[in-house]
């Protein structure tokens, strides 16, 4: 099963790569407050014209380099 996530692009400075921030919301077990946690993933992008702020879907793939383990599937 391929893991997919939805996030927002925060950097496009490197050619063929974008940095995507994925936010997940979970409920604290003791205080019952909704907590937002964000994690940044480097994703490979070869064909789509993307800019900072775009929402994209990324999918897990085999490692392409030291930091890139995801690829951009589509733009939302």
Describe the SSE topology:
Elements: E1 4-11, E2 17-27, E3 34-44, E4 55-60, E5 68-75
Parallel strand pairs: 3-5
Antiparallel strand pairs: 1-2, 1-4, 2-3, 4-5
Q: Assign an overall shape.
A: elongated
CATH superfamily: Nucleic acid-binding proteins
The SS-based structural class is: mainly beta
Termini, distance in Å? Answer: 22 Å
CATH topology: OB fold (Dihydrolipoamide Acetyltransferase, E2P)
Which regions contain 5 or more consecutive residues with pLDDT less than 50?
A: none
**Strand ordering within the main sheet:** 1-2-3-5-4
Q: How many structural domains?
A: 1
**Mean pLDDT metric:** 95
Biggest sheet overview: 5 strands, mixed, barrel
- The amount of helix comes to under 10%
CATH uppermost class: Mainly Beta
CATH architecture: Beta Barrel
- DSSP strand count: 5
Strand content: over 45%
Radius of gyration: 14 Å
Pfam families: Ribosomal_S17
Family: Belongs to the universal ribosomal protein uS17 family.
InterPro entries: NA-bd_OB-fold (IPR012340), Ribosomal_uS17 (IPR000266)
Keywords: Ribonucleoprotein, Ribosomal protein
């Amino acid at each position: 099963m391929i893991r997919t996530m939805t996030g927002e692009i925060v950097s496009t400075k490197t050619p063929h790569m974008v940095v995507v921030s994925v936010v997940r919301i979970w409920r604290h077990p003791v205080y019952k407050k909704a907590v937002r946690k964000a994690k940044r993933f480097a994703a490979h992008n070869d064909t789509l014209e993307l800019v900072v702020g775009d929402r994209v879907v990324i999918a897990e793939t085999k490692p392409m380099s030291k930091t890139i383990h995801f690829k951009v599937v589509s733009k939302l």
